[in-house]
Amino acid sequence: MAFRNDFLWGGATAANQCEGAYTEDGRGLSNVDLIPHGKDRFPVFVAGEGSLETDQDHYYPSHQAVDFYHHFKEDIALFHQMGFKTFRLSISWSRIFPLGDEELPNEEGLLFYEEIFKECQKYGIEPLVTITHFDCPMGLVKRYGGWENRKLICFYKNLVRTLFTRYKGLVKYWLTFNEINMILHAPFLAGGVVLQGTDNTEAVRYTAAHHQLVASAWATKIAHEIDPEMKVGCMLAAGNAYANTCNPKDVWLALEKDRSEYFFTDIQVRGYYPSYARKELNRKGITVPFKEDDEEVLRENTADFISLSYYSSRLVSTDPEVNNATDANVFATLKNPYLDVSEWGWQIDPLGLRITLNALYDRYQKPLFIVENGLGAKDELVDGKVEDDYRISYLREHIKAMRDAVELDGVDLLGYTTWGCIDLVSATTGEMSKRYGFIYVDRDDEGNGSYKRYKKKSFDWYKIVIETNGEILD
Prior knowledge:
With 474 residues, the protein is α/β, with parallel strands linked by helices. The chain is built from 15 helices and 16 strands. α7 runs parallel beside α9, α9 packs across α12 (294-300) and α13 packs parallel to α14 (389-407). The longest helix has 26 residues, at 201-226.
């Protein structure tokens, strides 16, 4: 058998993409609540361009999402029917601290997540909790400038201490920041950082990144002090870069692209800024804002495991004539002629998952956990059914690849949670029509629908995959 007996099969969600109820029970506004659906989405998503207020001219999909807030018992029961061993979800920071900088938490927000964790416990489902998944209270954005400001480390420490204390015994596995490398690519989404009026945007991005890295280390320290049984992981948006040709310049560019993302896990797993990063930042005139005991905290509080999202590999070239880039994903890449693509232009590369897992495990020799992998597609609901064979095919090939990584290559893999186990709002496009789940939710791109849940064909397929611990995939 390839996978360990306690392999954690399950699915993943994020608060801002599924919960809804954006002003209920004392919740404050989050940065994602200001990111609209439609043509104006990407400028806000990346840099916080435009007004930092909602208006009547836009639809904001996070406000209602799929209303997990009022359906969580029904949804977790469906996860149990599939046989989930784990359920990945995230905390909405502004449910716990509505403005982000309060001293005392909002009890109604704490109670909501406590009820979720107890519901999971009832079914023997292990919660895997992301503390911050593209979520920053607007109070921290407006008052302090988001993660560009070092003060957010203190507010984050207050958040994690509250969570770890309240949920001790209910939650074992924690992730500090979702896709922490996204702070360089979409700083408003990933850190509430507004780039308008900023001269050196790259310096701002790395300043925010440093603050998140230090905060992540503090979270690990605090968790282990409160409960030594807690396991705290880092989380990377992963996918190796391929050289377009065997030209050494292309090979070097691919190495540099990979390093730019490994920068984060190098620090979180090894405990220090790597030499290549120090040299590169120095060449760019960027000063890392080290203060007080940052180096010690980073060094002594490394991640217990490495989690990752994987959707695709990347392709790079130094030849200016090769410019067939796809802009379907936040991560720019050339079109790889050997790969098929999804309806949204994301390149499909199952072998790339095996390559990525091996690259990470060879580099760090720490347990890995795939916490996002899935296919966004337009599903058609006909007579209460969705025949999503394309999703089954996608997941089957990726599970085969990760099985090879474990069985043939010796990668230590803790678990696998597919992205969007229930349909939710797409982070990049804000669409509901870009569906990932095993469960169809009656909701459209304009916010219409009954919220009724329907099992897709993939629901029963994944149930068998879990029952057989990945042995039966057909």
